[in-house]
Amino acid sequence: MNARRVLALTNVVDLYQLKSQKTDVQSFNYYKQEYIVGALKELFLTPEGLLSLGLFVFMIGMGIYLVKMFISKMNNDQ
Asked: What is the distance between the alpha carbons of residues 40 and 47, in angstroms, rounded to a whole number?
């Protein structure tokens, strides 16, 4: 009789641990999503984020301009 109770209790504990692991993964995904959404809000809605975004766009544009200029200078026959 005691062995059955112990077995039943271990099954309940195992099920509880499985359930808690599942909720831990769900909560991790929820917090991960919250961080991503928070970062995007900060990037697009705060002055510092907009300044950073403008700087990224400027640097990429300047890189494209310089690559095109260097290629055209190399292809010139002077």
From this structure: 13
Name the phi and psi angles at 77, rounded to 5.
-105, 90
CA distance 59 to 10: 60
Structure token pair of residue 24: 């831990």
Q: What is the pLDDT of residues 17-49, one digit of tens each?
A: 656 555 656 666 766 777 888 888 998 999 999
**SS3 state at 21:** helix
Q: Which residues contact 21 (CB under 8 A, 6 or more apart)?
A: none
Helix or strand or coil: residue 76?
coil
